[in-house]
Amino acid sequence: MKVRINGKEIETGEKKTVLEAAREHGIYIPSLCDHPYLTPFGGCRLCLVEIKGRRGYFPSCSTFVEEGMEVRTDSNAIRKLRKMILNLILSEHPNACLMCSEKHNCEEQKLTIRKAAEVTGCIFCPKDGDCELQEVVENLKMKKLDFPSLYKEFNVEKKDPFFDRNNNLCILCGRCVRICQDIRGVSAISFVYRGSQTAVGTVLDKSLVDSGCQFCGACVDVCPTGALVERAVKYEGMSDREVKTICPLCSIGCAIEAKLKGGKLISLHPSRGSAVNQGQACVKGRFLIRDIVYNPRRILRPIVRKEGRLQEVCWDEALETAADCLKKYKCEEIAFLTSTQASCEENFLFEKFAREVLKTENIASTLSFSPLYFLKDLGRENYFEPSLNFKIKDISKAKTIFLVGEDVALSHPIIWLEIFKAIRKGARLIVVSPEEFFLNRYASIQLKVKPGADYCLFGYLSKIIMDQQNRLDVSQTEGYEFFKGDLSKLPMSRAFEITGIDEEDLKKTAQILIEKTPSIFIFGANLVRSSFANVNVASLWNLALQTKAEFFPFTSESNERGLFELYRSSLDKNKMLPQIFRDISDGLIKAVYLTSPVPYLGKGKPEFLMVQDSFMDNNSKEADIILPVTTHAETEGTFVNGEGRVQKFNKLIEPIGEAKPDCWVISELARKIGYKDLDFKNPSETMKEIRKAIPGFKNVYYSRLEKGEEVFIEEEKNPKKGFIPVKYKPVYVRTSKEYPFLLSLDYSRDYYRNLKLSQEFKGFRLMRNERNINICRDDAKKLKVKDGESVTLYSSFGKFKRFIAVSDSVPEGIVKTGFLWNEDPDFSPASLISFSSPEKLPLRFIPVRIERGK
């Protein structure tokens, strides 16, 4: 439609506000409460405009354009009105610097060092030069204040991690409150008090940690003043360069912008307009990456064990020693562990090196624990190829979301944002988990299934749906008769006994799945980290197929999908990680080349251990050779996120110390061993080889990725689907008098390469609580233990000591602790994995007992 603004005719789309239309065409209208991520609010009133034919003034942020509308944004009357409003705002905001006549040559004029607890002027404010209030003052040419200034005298809040809160600089625009409530779905903060005492705070003045804040940084990013600022970079000043890249800390692959100053990484912010994260981030991507890159655990020089001690050496000596050591072993005695956090280019060379240079088939990774692995396994056995690609934004279009075994608000916050959008549109959320999650407050139904009974629960839901007359006719789908026969052996009379779910709740859930379509089934890694992995996935697949729902398997690591695609054709040749651990303990594997973080090997250390990584950990301390490699910030390459979307990350800074890219290390080591066909000078050359060798990457070109084009892994156009046979034989995870509790065997998602984030960063540790044993209040009373008390946890596998944390999210009889990747030598997860049979993973729930410490 055509509208006229300040006499200029412009064209704009429908459902645009006057403010949006003006900004699109370079017309400035001041505003402090409006933000592209938020719905119109009309709070600050600075954006008032005149509209021809209408009396009064209208907030342009909440007034929508109409055909032929004539708008005036900058008359004398409007300017006078805006100055009056700005006067009122500034009367409660430090303003001396804003209107100082000498502010343009301030550096020359100030003669003394300022020492004060409070910021009272722009030159001392961390947002100086990047403050929207400054911009408005400049535009309106404010020279003096007509009202007396009032200092609010709030204390600066510094007790929470990552950012400071200074309500003396707050202008009550409400952006932080609205983004926390409307976009993030957390509502950790709100307006508190009334009248002139109104401020942004928490209920009962709790800390943000206690208020459930996820520290995503969204409030900091939308704050127009210095009221909310990132503590670590508060006084770094303005950046001199920005580079777009991809966050490497989970499988979403959020687009982020890195701010640099003098070649140093200062901070990272979510990119606006990203198709994946749409300007949002999580605590890890927003606040931890800089400290990861500059972490004191970084390995900066090659290290070789000499006479029992680790000593720094030059690269040439380290590579020569590594080549000589590897040559001593037969190919079947060497294992190579690749990484789900390394780029596609790096992993392609890793496998090529292992197969062609070391000539070993002992290749494994944490892909052994991926939902993708089990889905492919079931597809191969039943002659179908499941589609793995999807788009995150499609989740918000669903009418029913069936979420299994994953606290996505914690593990995949960006996925939670899409679920929250769907819920706000009226979608039903069904959560299957014995635990209480943050998002359960939004769930229509929570099915607190008994440990180990997930697949039986899905079977019962399928049986109820099949027995009802409904429009979801799938009787012609391949395998339907076998599916129907399997369900007939599942007795409804034992539903509660087997699953712990009341039959009425099962029927309500089934009814929602029948009536509220389209549906999306989301499941994560917890569903496959047990001996029931195959039947869990098969039964859930059948239920999704029966209800004609989309089926989204969630990966955990930054390049888990990429590694899966690279190794798709060779997965049958590769070994599962449990088998590698068993072969190490049995002496069949004598040399291990680690490029991936794995549980602490402890007493199971092989004869020769070589680590290629960025940080020191307990496995590194036991190594014979350590080769330091760059982080993702010091190189470039591609990741494939959980959607199947291929994304390029860019080099931000020069390598620190003597760290080298993984590709360089592998190529040089191959040359030292005598193999010269692995010399790839840069990642783009490696991608050319990947395109030739891997069908799924045939359309992946750096030129397309750098232009921002959507590039997905190539899949079959019409993948074959069918029901999978499932034998419903309920297996109970039993406790005993000696071991009365069940330990929920989880793993920490919070690591980068071999750096455990919750151990390294105090603020992050406050959020995760992974060093504690979490139990419910009733169990704490029975044990007569108090919150914070030292205890020892025992099982048939070993023991470890922790502190008790009384938690409302843990069900009775369950012990929860994130420990699978921790490095506790008494209770090594490696021993748990190697204890299981080669074909299966260990039970997710392990019987344990707790004894009070001294």
Relevant terms:
17% strand, seven-stranded mixed β-sheet, 854 residues, Rossmann fold, 27 helices, 34 strands, 28% helix, alpha/beta, globular, six-stranded mixed β-sheet, Dimethylsulfoxide Reductase, domain 2, single chain, N-terminal domain of TfIIb
Please summarize what this structure is.
This protein has 854 residues and is α/β, with parallel strands linked by helices. The chain is globular and about 85 Å long.
Task: Describe the fold and architecture.
The chain has a seven-stranded mixed sheet. A six-stranded mixed sheet has the order 30-32-31-34-27-33. The chain is built from 27 helices and 34 strands. The radius of gyration is 29 Å and the shape is globular. Among the domains are: 239-293, ADC-like domains (N-terminal domain of TfIIb, Single Sheet), CATH 2.20.25.90; 303-367 and 560-706, Rossmann fold; 371-553, Dimethylsulfoxide Reductase, domain 2 (3-Layer(aba) Sandwich); 741-852, Barwin-like endoglucanases (Beta Barrel), CATH 2.40.40.20. With 854 residues, it is an alpha/beta fold. Helix 13 crosses helix 16 (503-515) and helix 13 (454-467) packs parallel to helix 17.
Which ranges are low-confidence, i.e. pLDDT below 50, for 5 or more consecutive residues?
834-842
Averaged pLDDT? 88
Number of strands: 34
Percentage of β-strand residues: 15-25%
Q: Major β-sheet, in short?
A: 7 strands, mixed
CATH topology of the domain at 303-367 and 560-706: Rossmann fold
Coarse morphology: globular
Distance from first to last alpha carbon: 76 Å
Query: Count of DSSP helices?
Result: 27
Q: Biggest sheet, strands in spatial order?
A: 14-13-24-23-22-15-16
Name of the top-level CATH class of the domain at 303-367 and 560-706: Alpha Beta
Task: Please tell me how large the radius of gyration is.
Answer: 29 Å
Class based on secondary structure composition and strand pairing? alpha/beta
Report the CATH architecture of the domain at 303-367 and 560-706: 3-Layer(aba) Sandwich
Share in helix: 25-40%
